[in-house]
Structure formats: structure tokens, C-alpha cells
Amino acid sequence: MAGVMEHVLGNEVGRLIVGLIVILIFSQLNALFLVWLERKVAGHIQVRIGPKEVGPFGLLQTIVDGLKLIGKELITPKRADKILFIIAPVLVFVPVLVPFIVLPFSKSLPLNDMNVGLLVVFSFSTINVLAILIAGWGSNNKYALLGAIRSVAQNIAYEIPLLLSVLSVVLMTKTLQMSKIVEAQSSYWFFLVQPIAALIYFICATAETNRAPFDIPEAESELVAGFHTEFSGMRFGLFFLAEYTNVFVVCAVATTLFLGGWTGPFGYSLGIPGIVWFLAKTYLLVFVIMWFRWTFPRLRFDQLITFSWKVLIPLALANLVITAGVIKLI
Amino acid sequence: MGYFKDILVGGWSLVKGLEVTIKRLYRPVVTLQYPRHKIEMSPSYRGHIELKRFPDTGSHYCVACGTCMRVCPSGVIKLQGEKDKALDVKKVVHYYIDFSHCSLCGLCVESCPMQTLEFSTEYELADESRWDGVIDLVKYFEESAI
To answer: What is the pLDDT of residue A3?
Structure first.
């Protein structure tokens, strides 16, 4: 058995296939866990209990919900654009899996440690916006279209400060390779020297994933459910899975860039394996995003755009210029 | 300068908000798992009336005088008594109240000369038929003794 495993993992193609299967399983289980966690956090913040009936602590609740979604009828509206309507959920879910290939879970665990790792993550997470626009347009529904338009405007506004804040880290490490960025933080984590960039990244990541308080593309009170209004059954389920997988990905990237990835604080790993450090930090950030959702009310659309263009982008630019200047001087 | 002040003041208010919710997160939950756990009803709760049990006799003092029946503005009380020959007192044998029409005014409780009526803390009163609202208080009294 060990010989077979060695043969499969030693082979480039074998490693890729095993890795993809692991990614698929992990992303599903992660999304199911996050939905459960979200409901538990929501419950306890509102002094309720949250799901508790199905399985221990209600852990199986989301699996049962998923099974229900699989069993439901897939309704396509009569006047919807059939092709776009069908490919939109697939297009929204597939790109969020790609960043898992380069995410450095531990020193030896990135499936493929590309030298353009960071670029891969951000280029594929941008496809998400296109998929949302396709979903909104293909539904032929005014609420879906409004939600999609808002999503595009929001993502364009927040992509810029996001990338600017990432750029200041890239300037410091002079590499786009995820593992090199983590290794550069072996003595101290970057959020200590780049607190503004870390904060801006985290705010923009919340907006990128369409999470509250930036969830206006799916504002329930105005737009029914936004771009996924017309989707039923597992098509809706894919949007849901994509959202939670996306949350995990942006938090994992934040961990890599600012919280030192698999390393312990100030280089002390305390005997805890790297993957545990990585997942612990990532899930802590995921919890903070959930905490945001149950604390802050939704922004008005003009407030949202104003906040990005008048506050985040100037601050990110100033931060980038100062970073560049300091690096030049040192 | 107002630009940075706005950012700092706004940011601080967000931190304050987060502080409020994180405190709630560690607070014990108030939700009760209803069919499995039940709440202790407050004594001021008004369910339908019941016959009060006095500790000295272990029974009620109702003598079937009919004051409650006459005073009831909704006319939902009907009772019947029987004379106990040995003790030479009248005792109630049937005490019916149609709770579905009761307005819970409490006149019966106030007017009772023996002060043997009180509001019960019964709250699980949902039923299938309108006649299920008719309660035999004597039977209820005997059952509650067990």
C-alpha cells in the first residue's frame, strides 16, 4: 500500500489527481461546516441556540439541507437565457476551486507551488464577478439583474484597494510565490509592519465575497435574493457553496499574506504542525467575517462606493507609496 | 483633518459594535427547547380558574353557592352542588367552565365568598374542537391532586 501511495504521489499527474480529489472533498466539507458555523454564530450572538436537532450539535443539519437541495426540481424560467442560466452556477463554482491549488496549507502541501501563485488566486477570483453577471442577466428577472449590476460595480470598486494592499506585501517580499511570502514572515508576521494594508485587504475581501455589511448584491429586503433569485435546487446550492468556499479562500490568502501562513508567532511553532496553524488562523478570520455579518447593518449603495473611492483607495495608494519609499531607503 | 477624524470615529464605533455582539456570544442562551423543557409560569399568569386547595383540609371550600355563576359577565360558569347529609354542608359535584368564551375578567375569583377560586397557571390549552374548551374543574381538581 505504501509503495502504491509513493508511486502515485511521486508522479506529477498522480499528485495532481489525488490533490484535485482532496480539494473537491475539502471544499464541500468546508462549505458545509461553514454554513453550520454561520448558523451557530448567528444563534449565539442573538442569544439563541442555533441548529441542534440533526446529529451532535446539529452538525449533520447542513448535510441534510444539501440532500434536500439535490432532491429539488431545477426550474428554468420560461424567458430566461437557457445556456447562460445553466452555465452560471458552474461558472461561479469552478473558479473558486482553482486557488486551492496554490494555497500553502503547510511547507510541503501546496499542490503546485507556482511562482505566480498570488496572481492565480486573484485572477480566478475575479471570474466570480463575471459568473454573477451571467447569472443575473440570464435569469431575465429585474431583481436578479439589479443584483448583478450592483455586484459588478461593487467588485470593480473593491478590487482596486484589494490589489493595492496586496501589492505592498509583494513589494516587501519581491515575489508572487505563496510559499516564499510565508517564508519571508518566519521571524514576524506582516500585519505588524503592514497594519493598514492588512485592514484594507480584510475589508475588501469581505466586500469581494459579497458578505455583510457589503451584501447589497443579494440584499434580501430590496432584491429578494439578488442574482440567484431564480435559481432553485442544486443550482442555488452551488452559489451557496461558492460563497462559503470563497470566504475560506480570501481568509486563507489573508493568512498567507499577513498572518504568516503555516508559521507560528515570531517563528515559534510550539510543536504544532504547520497545517494546524494555517487552518486555525484561517478559521479565526472566517469567524471574524461571520461576526461582522451579525454586527453591522448593510450599507447603502452610495455609501459603499464612496467608502471605497474616497477612503480605501487613497489610503491603499498612500500605504503603497510609503512602503515603496521605505524599501528603497533600507 | 475632518477626513481622518471621520475615519477614526467611524472605525471606533464599529469596534464598539463588535464588542457588543461578542459579549452576546458568550452569554447563556435564553431559548427553551419547549416540548422537552418547560418554563415555570409566573404566579400572576392568568390561565382558566381552578379550585384552590387549602392545606388544613387538603381540599377546596366550594359550597356551590353559585355567586361566581351569577356574577360571570360571559355566562361561562355552570355548577351543581349536593348536600352532604353527614356533615350538613353543601359540596360542589360538577363545576363546568367554558374557557373558550371566558374573558378572564376575574370577577368570579374576587366575588367568591369562600375565596376558594384562583387562576391556574395552565397554558397548554390548544385543542381540536370548540367543545374542548369546556373544563370540569372538579375533575381537574381531583386530577391535580395526584
So the answer is: 62
